[in-house]
Here is the input.
Amino acid sequence: MLQVSPKKSKSRALAGHSPWCVDTRSVLSGGSRKFYATREEAQAYIDALVKETSGVNKSSDAWKWTFYELAKNYIAQVEKEYRDGEKSKSFYHEKVRHVDCFLDCVVDGKPLANMRVAELTKGMVKHQVMDQLKVKRTIKTVKNICGGIGTMINYAIIEGCRETNPLEGVERKGAIQITEGSNKAQRIADDVIYEIIDNMNPRWQLLTNFAADTGARQGEQRALTWGQINFDKCKVTIDRAIEHKTSDVFKDPKTYSGLRTIPLTRDVLADLKELYIQQGRPNDPDRLVFGTEFNHPITSAKYLKRIKDACKRAGVAPITWHELRHYYASVLLQLYPDDLWRVKNYMGHSDIRITQGIYGHWLENDEDNDQAVDRITDRKRRRRSAR
Here is the structure.
């Protein structure tokens, strides 16, 4: 229990300032001096501190842990769960990132990593840690980080470092605000897709066509294997992806709904069959469709450079891989304007509200379905004639 009591400063009282002082600098790492108008207010603050930091199991060595020591033990536990097959590698890497963000914080001018776990208070989290976590981050990112930190501190409670979680009840804000409509996708014209594809070599043309005709996320497409292609049923099954910013770490799709089967157009299927033959009809179902000669996934940076160069040659504004996914969504909404659930399922969204929020505005001023189908058919006809 904290050994601290309120003390009255006569000089502050004479000067008309709040005289009651609570000095925790000698008992808490990152402690400070706080002043209150009355003894009761000062004592209430002490009682709150005692409630947060008391009850620690001092019979365990864990109560002495700093956050650095906690993080080391927690990450070792998560890694073990990953090695034992209980957690995915992406889960492991995500927790490492969250912990790194947390340990980078400073409390009262001192590294949080050096602070004892038992000494972190809700006030420190609210007024210092959160202010640092939210810098250049959206509220969604901050919530994700806090979720990871909260899990680590719950682990600390189990290990006997402390009894309460100081993150509970603390509002999580981001510095980057998402304004209304900013998450709405912008439609890409068919002619733009034509021009970009026409300015690519055949290898990158197929990759671009596949993205535009399936809406596969970049990590899903880079991880695509021949075992996921069903030539007989003209379908592709999306059941894995590549870890963001890596080239060789595979994981499950972004959400459970990301596990999906998508119909392939005849044009893309024909191109895939041709590529399958060019690769010597590989018998290995794990052979990558868009991999390198040594069966390594292509990097997103390499493809983005190709698409950027193609956009420059075509004289159009640069687009991203994800914008090809938006293009696929626009095609689906033209084909199925009254079946948003089908669109949601093909896109692999976890919630139909995501589909509505990103693409719903396209339904308000869309062409009628017959005209839309004509445009899509014309695009396919043009692609076949270009071969």
User: Anything to note?
Assistant: The longest strand covers residues 20-23. The radius of gyration is 28 Å. DSSP finds 15 helices and ten strands in the chain. Residues 55-178 form a domain with the DNA polymerase; domain 1 fold (CATH 1.10.150.130).
